[in-house]
Amino acid sequence: MGKLTVLDHPLIKHKLSIIRDKNTGTNEFRKVVTEISQLMCYEVCRDLELETYEIETPIEKTVGYKLAGKKMGLVPILRAGLGMVDGMLSLIPSAKVGHIGMYRDEESLKPVPYYAKLPSDVEDRKIFVLDPMLATGGSAIDAISELKKQGCQDIRLINIVAAPEGVKAVQDAHPDVAIYVAALDKGLNEDAYIIPGLGDAGDRLFGTK
Ligand code: PRP
Ligand code: URA
To answer: How many beta carbons lie within 10 A of that of residue 164, not counting itself?
Structure first.
């Protein structure tokens, strides 16, 4: 089963409370999502491989470290996943960025795909799928399936707020994918919105509705 890691660092909890607040406006919401994404990136990258090389400080030679292993790829699920890209790129600027467009049909609650553009060497990259919300899990499951169809084998899912139902659905569908969340909430309401959640992440990020 894909491992679930809840990144409940005090700074993340503090910032998450700001974006949960219905009185937080678009400008601040976007800024704080970027900050949370940065903090999550730091933790999600904790186990990345390093290689050593020799460097010379002004005093003497010593061992330097650089990231080794697979190159990285970020894949936000449009629209709301876009809000997490800048924070991630600020720490891993050499990552390439692919996009998967998907919206959840309001009646069926099933994801409807409308766009996919991925780096040409996506199958050779370590992929971080980005979406602030993991509700029923349908969007994440389909996005990961599309990445696997393109040959990706090393995929992590990064969500800010998740419902237990979505976590379980992703773990059942893609047991090889590790999931990182900032908060695991109570569940879903009758419209499949996360409770307490933060509302509609895309609308809050982009000021729509
Ligand atoms: C939201 C969210 C996820 C999806 C989660 O996107 O950003 O992609 O819903 O729900 P699920 O786990 O039940 O699939 P939405 O469909 O609202 O599209 P948007 O980002 O374009 O607003
Ligand atoms: N999509 C959102 O943006 N918010 C939710 O709570 C569920 C799905």
So the answer is: 15
Q: Which residues line ligand 1 (CB under 6 A)?
A: 77-80, 103-104, 111, 131-140, 166, 192, 200-202
Show the DSSP H helices in the chain as ranges.
10-20, 26-44, 85-91, 138-149, 164-173, 201-206
> How many other C-beta atoms are found inside a 10 Å radius of the C-beta of residue 200?
15
Q: Do you know the residue count of the chain?
A: 209
Per-residue pLDDT tens over the stretch 148-181: 999 999 999 999 999 999 999 999 999 999 999 9
- Rounded Cα distance between 60 and 42, Å, is 29
Q: If residue 67 lies in a helix (H) or strand (E), which one and from where to where? A: strand 61-67
Q: Taking a C-beta distance cutoff of 8 angstroms, is the pair 165, 137 a contact? A: yes
Distance from the alpha carbon of residue 13 to the mean position of ligand 1, in angstroms: 22
Q: How far apart are CA 78 and CA 176, in angstroms?
A: 23
How many whole angstroms separate alpha carbon 171 and alpha carbon 3?
A: 8
Q: What is the pTM of this model?
A: 0.97
Residues forming a β-bridge with 179: 4, 157
In the block, which residue shows the tokens 């990144």? 7
Looking from the CA of residue 201, the nearest atom of ligand 1 is 7
- Residues 6 or more apart whose CB falls under 8 angstroms from that of 42 comprise 91
What are 82-105's pLDDT values in tens digits?
Answer: 999 999 999 999 999 999 999 989
Going by alpha carbons, the residue nearest to atom 5 of ligand 2 is 193
